[in-house]
Design goal:
It is a single chain. The protein is an all-alpha fold and about 80 residues long. It contains four helices and no strands. Helix 1 packs across helix 4. The longest helix has 22 residues.
């Protein structure tokens, strides 16, 4: 799993440095930290709801979405993967 997280982190760093047309990640960086944090909050709520409903596949999918948005937040805030290991 760490390979996937490291790969996502690297892609997020690249998107922050080099804008790509139509990239959702670039859109988040353009909108700034407040938008990224809002998305983190939304995804966290969705994880909780899916878990509460006992929907394992939905919960796993929402966890993936949350992890992605957390990685984008880390890149925006300048937090390295090493700082959270």
């Amino acid at each position: 799993m760490m390979d996937v997280i490291e790969g996502l982190y690297q892609v997020a760093q690249e998107r922050k440095q080099e804008k790509q047309e139509g990239s959702y990640t670039c859109y988040l960086f353009e909108q700034g930290l407040d938008k990224i944090l809002k998305k983190c909050g939304e995804e966290c709520s969705e994880v909780i709801i899916a878990a509460k409903n006992g929907q394992n596949q939905d919960t796993a999918n929402e966890i993936c979405d949350l992890l992605y948005h957390l990685i984008v937040m880390m890149v925006e805030a300048g937090i390295s993967l090493e700082e959270v290991q």
